[in-house]
């Protein structure tokens, strides 16, 4: 098997380096993820976008399963199970959005930031061109990001807004930990990263989509803090 713990550490290092670069560009993004700084409107808009992106991400993964089913059955099966497990996660966050006054007709892809359209468009295009690898690496990134930041952000929001206001987000954090989604995605990486060329492509995708994540957070700041 090509993919190893050393390979995983290199991917994690690539993400950490890319995220650090984005934090240097955007002080608010850095503070939101690493310090006590908090703004209620910023957080609420971020959660709205998270739910919209979950819907878009489910479509991405379904497309990746379709593509993988042609020549990578192992990846297709594993990603199918992950997708099955992810269905309904939007409803956890949705409980919080209802408390914030959002209606269901606001939680649609047309209301996403153009930066999110760009990000998801890039990933869908790459799946069509390169197979399931971009989607799996992206999903792994989401779980790695979640392990590093989601609990901290949710607890901080609970301090400022009250725990009841973030009960849905807290349930999502607990669910991901209980189901070990991070471990699931790490294992899935080996189904798509089988050669040095695959690994190099994974690094290339990380260095492409993390800056788009940074652009998204800049859009949140511009809309809520300007």
Attribute tags:
226 residues, mainly alpha, Heme Oxygenase, Chain A, 10 helices, 83% helix
Helices and strands, with pairings:
Layout (H helix, E strand, L loop, with lengths): L4 H21 L1 H8 L5 H32 L1 H14 L2 H11 L14 H17 L2 H29 L5 H13 L1 H12 L3 H30 L1
Helix pairs in contact: 1-2, 1-10, 3-4, 3-5, 3-6, 3-7, 3-10, 4-9, 5-8, 6-7, 6-10, 7-8, 7-9, 7-10
The profile of the biggest β sheet is: none
How much is the average pLDDT? 93
Radius of gyration: 17 Å
Catalogue the unreliable spans.
none
Describe the fold and architecture.
This protein is an all-alpha fold. The protein has one domain: Heme oxygenase-like (Heme Oxygenase, Chain A). It contains ten helices and no strands. The chain is globular. The relative contact order is 0.19. The mean pLDDT is 93.
Task: Briefly say what this structure is.
The chain has 226 residues and is mainly α. The chain is built from ten helices and no strands.
């Amino acid at each position: 098997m090509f993919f190893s713990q050393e390979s995983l550490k290199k991917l994690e290092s690539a993400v950490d380096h890319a995220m650090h670069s984005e934090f240097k560009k955007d002080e608010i993004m850095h503070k939101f993820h690493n310090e006590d700084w908090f703004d209620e409107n910023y957080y609420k808009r971020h959660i709205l976008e998270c739910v919209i992106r979950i819907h878009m991400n489910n479509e991405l993964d379904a497309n990746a399963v379709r593509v993988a089913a042609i020549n990578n059955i192992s990846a297709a099966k594993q990603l199918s199970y992950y997708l099955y497990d992810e269905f309904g996660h939007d409803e956890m966050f949705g409980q919080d959005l209802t408390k914030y006054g959002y209606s269901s007709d606001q939680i649609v892809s047309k209301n996403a930031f153009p930066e999110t359209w760009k990000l998801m468009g890039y990933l869908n295009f790459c799946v069509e061109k390169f197979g399931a690898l971009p989607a799996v690496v992206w999903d792994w990134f989401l779980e790695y990001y979640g392990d590093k930041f989601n609990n901290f952000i949710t607890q901080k929001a609970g301090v400022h807004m009250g725990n009841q206001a973030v009960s849905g987000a807290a349930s999502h954090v607990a669910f991901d930990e209980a189901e070990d989604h991070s471990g699931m995605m790490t294992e899935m990486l080996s189904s798509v990263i089988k050669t040095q060329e695959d690994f190099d492509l994974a690094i290339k995708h990380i260095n492409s989509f993390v800056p788009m994540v940074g652009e998204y957070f800049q859009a949140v700041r511009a809309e809520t803090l300007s």
